[in-house]
Amino acid sequence: MSSEQNQESIRCLVAKAGLDGHDRGAHVIARAFRDAGFEVIYSGLHKAPEEIVQAAVQEDVNVLGISILSGAHSTLVPKILNGLEEYGAAADTLVLVGGVIPEEDREELEAQGVANIFGPGTAVEETIEFVRENAPER
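^ that's the sequence the OP posted. Answer follows.
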């Protein structure tokens, strides 16, 4: 399979967790992923961690991008990671977090299973390249 075929088969869920209603960044990254040739599913606003896990498992995604700006990342992201683990999907899902995540919280999220955190101002090309290089194959 060529690298171009691999890129086309990457399936992503872009999810908004919790009560955060700011979804401009999620829309921007979803569109950029689509334009890069990825299959993209957008969860919509105000999803509970359990809903995000269910969608990721049912849609068999390679990549789960969690957009969060509310400051609840230390509560919501671990619930999502634990849910993926319970379904046996954690090893097959590249989990990314986008949003305002304080520097002091990043190490803990990465230790729990977040592959990378992309803050405000990150070039979409950087995120796309990270996904291409790290998305698990199906």
